[in-house]
Specification:
Strand order of the largest sheet: 4-3-5-7-6
Strand content: 5-15%
Structural class: mainly alpha
Distance between the termini: 74 Å
Oligomer: single chain
Low-confidence stretches: 350-363
Radius of gyration: 27 Å
Helix content: 55-70%
Mean pLDDT: 88
Length: 575
């Protein structure tokens, strides 16, 4: 309860500090059932006109929500339906959703992850000490705080994965502990069990399948959880065949395994048509399908960084070089110390006569626990590497996709630091707690896991260059629906900065209207502007030659804002 309270403080602290991202705009817009088909394009409008998708319309039905989601998104519907109910309860009709309300659902789910992480570690290791360490590791996880402060579905998917792995490990132990000489159903337990025990085992398996089905309805990448659980049972089946022959997998055993595989496979197969459509969408092109040059080395490096960020983080992003270098060296030292400890616990066999505490620890973590961690973490990482180097997709580019194995990483490290003995144990424990707490605070203060587009700093740059009485025009050329949502995110952030709202306007310039002639919407806009105006372009440069229309380019902003920003003084000569 203490660590859950600490987790709540970290996750709910300053939920509205960070600027909204385009994917959060998608969650809120689709969660409200509004969609983005009615966004005004190719015309000059105030920023609030672009935020209509973020206002609660109680007349929008669930059917309309599902229709717009299927037409304009690449995600399954479960979290959006939950978000609709959540936002409806926290937002007055017709009002614009606040980011505290939008992100609080994920924050609440992040708090619930603390006791569930403890339950997962205890199930895998059969150790209360592992559970006691999993709670603070999850509460202070910088990666966990990052997921919890995003208005996205990854925290829900991680929760479902934790519950699913708890049930998978319990079922795997029943399968592994059974003997072929006894007639039994290897998935639900011994036939000699009491009726209540058999019913409980069947209920657990049914709940396990249900959780995986809900996971797939939350995010398609959740399928990796189901696949790696299949790897666990595959390893157990091979081990069983080596002990007692392949015939031990026949009869009721084979029928039970086949039924389980069919049910779990169905939770993925039902979504295959939708996943195929999502993979062909322009909104998923950014993950890349072919690697070359330095990208070949960046894939494993990024995965290592995401793994490390699950337990420790220091300020590195967009920091002065001395701070970034010092933080990097400290993280490297922490990673080496943690890696040595994890290797000692999982990477090599121990001599039973070496010391009593490790023997006791090793006996509590049986081979099912070892293989569950190996399949869940190692199997997922292997699949990520195969997908990246096989030309399918590089899922290492986004930290949020690592939710598939995040809970098991927390469980594995908790199990590694749980024993009382060991020369590295005490300093590594202190290191994890301190660097986890510092890393979580960095995330809360927007010093870690920063948004790719720094729209808050972008508006600060614009506000610092405003000229008296001159209108401020922001033009964003677009060629995809994801860029539309990025422009709405930019409009949503504008209200939080000291800008002349009565002189501020935006134009979303569609690809079909972005041309270099006098009849284009941008040319007509420039012709209608007052003699003095400030024009800013965000993203790709428009095709229209602005300098030929009395718009003089100004120096570029000194810092990287994640999006190309150009400034023009459009001053027509006076007659």
């Amino acid at each position: 309860m203490l660590w859950a309270a600490i987790a709540a403080g970290l996750r709910f602290w300053q939920l509205d500090l960070k600027p909204p991202s385009s994917i959060e705009i998608a969650t809120v817009g689709f969660g409200l059932g509004n969609g983005f088909g009615a966004v005004p394009m190719d015309q000059l409008v105030p920023p609030e006109a672009l935020r209509t998708a973020l206002r609660l319309d109680p007349t929008v039905s669930i059917a309309q929500l599902l229709e717009r989601l299927a037409d304009q998104s690449t995600h399954p519907p479960l979290f959006f339906l939950l978000m609709r109910g959540w936002l409806t309860a926290l937002t007055p009709p017709g009002a614009e959703v606040t980011w505290t309300a939008a992100r609080s659902l994920s924050a609440l789910l992040g708090v619930a992850a603390v006791p569930l992480a403890a339950a997962l570690a205890r199930t895998i290791a059969r150790s209360r000490r592992a559970a006691f360490w999993a709670a603070p590791l999850m509460a202070l996880s910088p990666y966990g705080v990052y997921l919890s402060q995003e208005a996205r579905h990854y925290t829900l998917a991680a929760l479902l994965a934790m519950g699913s792995w708890i049930l998978a490990v319990r079922s795997a132990r029943r399968f592994d502990q059974d003997r072929p000489t006894q007639p039994s159903n290897q998935i639900t337990g011994h036939i000699s069990q009491t009726p209540q025990g058999r019913f409980g085992a069947i209920a657990e398996v049914s709940l396990w399948v249900l959780l995986n089905g809900l996971g797939m309805a939350t995010h398609y990448l959740y399928g990796l959880v189901t696949v790696t659980q299949g790897l666990l049972f595959g390893v157990l089946a091979i081990a069983r065949s080596r002990r007692w022959g392949w015939r031990s997998l026949g009869g009721r055993v084979g029928a039970g395994l086949g039924l389980l595989a069919a049910l779990q496979g169905a939770t993925i197969a039902l979504w295959i048509p939708f996943m195929r459509r999502a993979s062909e969408s322009e909104m998923t092109e950014w993950v890349g399908d072919h690697l070359s040059g330095g990208d070949l080395l960046m894939v494993p490096l990024r995965l290592i960084l995401w793994l490390l960020s699950m337990v420790m983080l220091l300020p590195i992003e967009r920091q002065p070089w001395p701070i970034a270098i010092a933080s990097g060296l400290l993280l490297l030292a922490g990673a080496i110390a943690l890696g040595v400890l994890v290797w000692r616990r999982f990477g090599r066999r121990r001599d039973p006569s070496s010391s009593p505490e490790p023997v006791q620890f090793q006996s509590s973590l049986d081979r099912v626990g070892h293989w569950a961690l190996g399949a869940g973490v190692g199997g997922a990482l292997a699949i990520f590497l195969l997908m990246a180097y096989g030309g399918r997709a590089d899922l290492s580019v986004a930290p949020r996709y690592q939710f598939t194995y995040f809970p098991l990483v927390i469980a594995a490290i908790a199990i590694a630091v749980a024993p009382a003995a060991g020369p590295l144990m005490t300093p590594v424990r202190r290191l994890l707690l301190v660097m986890g707490a510092v890393g979580s605070l960095c995330v809360v203060q927007d010093l870690g896991f920063q948004k790719s587009i720094q729209s808050d700093r972008l508006w600060e740059t614009i506000a610092a260059a405003v000229r008296p009485a001159a209108p401020v025009i922001v033009v964003t050329p677009l060629d995809s629906l994801s860029e539309v949502r990025s422009a709405i995110a930019l409009a949503a952030e504008s209200a939080r900065h000291r800008l002349p709202q009565n002189r501020l306007a935006m134009m979303l310039l569609s690809d079909r209207a972005d041309r270099n002639d006098d009849t284009s919407p941008l040319a007509a806009l420039l012709a209608a502007l007052p003699p003095q105006a400030d024009l800013w372009t965000v993203g790709d440069a428009p095709h229209l030659d602005l300098e030929q229309r009395h718009c003089q380019r100004q120096p570029n902003p000194p810092e990287d804002l994640g999006e190309r920003l150009r400034h023009f003084h459009c001053d027509r000569p006076q007659p």
